[in-house]
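re: that chain from earlier
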Amino acid sequence: MTLKVKDAEQGDWAVLLVSGEMDLVTSPVVRQRVHDAVAEGRRSLVLDLAEVRFCDSSGVGVLIAARRLMRSCQGRLRLILPTQGGPDGSHVNRVLAALGVRRLFDIYPDLAAATHETPREKPLSA
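^ sequence. v structure.
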């Protein structure tokens, strides 16, 4: 399986819909698309990872780098990781939890929740 990244918008949010596998070969595509969004002046970014079926450490590195980049430009990054797909949710969700970095991200179950502007007490990243 390969990686596909599609652009979308939801209000003020730039959305990158990622599907396939994020590994050493493919994850630089996601990194570049995040950089492109920031270069275009986007400061609110959602990475929809609901259709990512595999993510290795290089994919996690791209997510951490995206978080760092968005924070450095006073931006916002939100991840969509649905809870379906077994007791622990999506593959990416399990990988982030296993590595102990899930708490670094604002995680939402779907696009509507991720782009809703009303402040929430705590995102699903606990």
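The mean pLDDT is 88.
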